[in-house]
Amino acid sequence: MSDVAFVDSHCHLDRLNLDAHNGDFDAMMAATAEAGVSHMLCIGVDLETFPDVQALAEQHDHVYASVGVHPLYKESREPQVSELVERASHPKVVAIGETGLDYFNAKEQREWQQRYFIAHIQAARETGLPLVIHTRGAKDDTLALLREYGQGQVRGVLHCFTEDLDMAQQAIDMGFYISISGIITFRNAETLRDTVKALPLERLLIETDSPWLAPVPFRGKPNEPRYVAQVAECVAQLKVSTWLNWRALPVTISLPSSTRRNHESEFDAGAGRPWWRSLCGAAGAADGASS
Ligand SMILES: [Zn+2]
Ligand SMILES: [Zn+2]
Predict the structure, then answer these.
(1) What is the pTM assigned to this prediction?
(2) How far is the centre of ligand 2, averaged over its atoms, from the C-alpha of 161 (Å)?
(3) Which domains does the chain have, with CATH numbers?
(4) Which residues, other chains included, contact 38 with Cβ-Cβ below 8 Å and sequence gap of 6+?
(5) 144-161 pLDDT, tens per residue?
(6) Among 179, 191, 238, 275, which residue carries the largest CB count within 10 Å?
(7) Strand partners, 278
(8) From the CA of 98, how far away is ligand 1's center (Å)?
């Protein structure tokens, strides 16, 4: 096993295609560990299947869960703030989402997307948990709703980020992290690579969003958390060329810590420290000997 520890900050473990492992979930998890992935955040997309997500987090120490309704899952039961808060009280639930606005894929559905998004923002405020936000083609409304309903009190991550540098910087100014998926490895993602080069390393996270969006050289195949290593490598190469030197490799990019007050989970142990760190080189030295 690698001595590098990656965290997949966004995957859908309950939806993976396990054909490469003959349908054996445990074999997939073993391959994930072999690739150096130490933790995974398994993301909920609707309330109906949330019990599956929660069960995976209960069964595996290094898997955590989020609860929410994805902006393209219109058929899901509407999330009430009280239900999100209630489900988020589970000790392995460390985030609210995924939620957000996707006008790119569903531009006729702004009204309910906004209503659901506002409920998630309110639940994040109430619980103190980070928000996992999916945003596509909805820059102005995403930022405006976060400001209006978050009141400076919500933090979180813009996941699978593909929007512009200005949006990333505005979100970072609000205390958010930007999570980079396998899209960063795609040949036509030059603009995104330029954006990543311009963003501060300590505000970046990595993810697979598996089973979708497998990075090069697995593009087109079912994605798995183990491929977060390819995302890390790509991000590291972009950042090394601009910010660090080669000694800063290999990298570790960690999951956002839960900011839940009065609750010590494994992720909370990392709260307040940079979420990205390297095992050697400048960034690692600044972060001390954390695991
Ligand atoms: Zn998403
Ligand atoms: Zn997702």
Answers:
(1) 0.85
(2) 11
(3) 6-267 (3.20.20.140)
(4) 5, 6, 7, 62
(5) 999 999 999 999 999 999
(6) 179
(7) 251
(8) 7
